[in-house]
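Fold it.
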Amino acid sequence: MRRNATHKLLLPALLAVAIAPMSLAAVAAPGKSEGWHEQHQERFEERRQALFERAGLDDETRSALEEAHGEHMQALRELHEQHRERMDEILDDEQREALREAKREMRQEHHAERRGERRQGMQERLTTLVDSWELSDEERERLTELRESLYADMQELRGQEFDSREERREAWQALRDEHREALGEVLSEEQIAALEAFMQSRHHKGHSKHHGERQRG
């Protein structure tokens, strides 16, 4: 009996943690595709059932929670609809468009600020790495020239058209080999390896973030 009582006390908290955030996300994402909603619902259901299993809930309690969840979702949908209707009463078309544009601008500014912070952080780490090598002023200048030259060549290569993916891959490989050979005039093999590891780490972080954004989109 005490165990059942404890379960009943825990249920509201468990339900809030497991259901509320995902329920809100489902209601607040009307622009998502039908397939996305189906996948989201499947994952939600799997997590909910796993939660019920871990909590040791019986079938009767699960049925009651299913009913409560349905009521909760219906209330959220009605609240969302009421909010949208209220916004339509307050805003005219011009104000609504101005509000959407302001939101877009703020998102763009936020993303630009985050990119700037990441770029600055990357530059600071790169500077710390180069400082540890104790290069001469001439070597530092040459290193800067090589970096700027590489960026320019990369931009030019991106704009070129190739007959095949293999041809494009070979062109990028040739550029990397050429740049690595030029670095050998300034840096040791150990330093080049450290620089390549740094750049690969930066590339993987950027790729992972971009992939995560695409998954969320």
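The two ends are 47 Å apart (CA to CA).
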